[in-house]
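Subject: sequence -> structure tokens, single chain

Hey, anyone have a minute? Need the predicted structure for the following. Not urgent.
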Amino acid sequence: MSPKTIGLIAHTGKKGAAELVQAVGDEFARCSISVLMEKETAALAGQRSALSVAELGAQADLLVVLGGDGTILSVAGQLGDVIKPIFGINVGSLGFLTCSSSTAFHDAVDCIAGGKIAFSERTLLEVTVARPRADQGPMIALNDAVFSRGELSRLIRLRTRVDGEELTEFNADGLIVATPTGSTAYSLSAGGPIMSPDSGVLVITPICPHVLTNRSIIVSDKSVIEVDVTERDYAVYLTVDGREPLRLETGALVRITKASKTLPLAVMPGTSFFSVVRQKLKWSGSNV
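Reply:
Had a minute. Here:
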């Protein structure tokens, strides 16, 4: 893929973001590639633009995101129906979704201009909430859908089914339903397994379950996962990819399925998922 138009989006709160936006923009101009900027990114660089993330996605061939994993999740959630490939340049510390560091942006731009980058097709979740009073429109997630308790340190009850069959009623701090991409995020911290992007599965991971035999369970990504909020005494919240939490009423039914579209996530040439895992988790092998 040799894009003609790049959409540039930055985490404007990151230190050095303004300088990086200008430098990356200049590099693409050197390669005769047109650059469009999201409005807040443009303002950071002293330029003018009225384009939202969704509008940028509709016009650009490739989105270059300067930030961390959270920035990529935010961008993916704002694209709407038009899903465009994303290339992430890391401005921060740990990042599983970004594929280049901010200090190596020259090499990143050269690879993009030369059509040398590859793409990993990442599963997306479609999350729908049916509530007693009103329905919530579908939400798209690259990482996960997380059920959690409110401010009180109390366990909550969540009845969970897979393809219509009862799994269990979790009595826990919460519950995570994650894609393979999200398996290296909150689910991993909660004791869940690491899954390769092409594994074709989803993982359901309880957060601090009261019943110690409740553990992560892996299901096909063709499954329909349903979670009933059966907790009557305490608030339950749903958070999709870290966005604004949605308060769920007792009796709310959350339906989670694989979305019909995937997200093409860029990878540098010669880079594999397992090499990224080794690097990010600092796996160095046995000293024995």
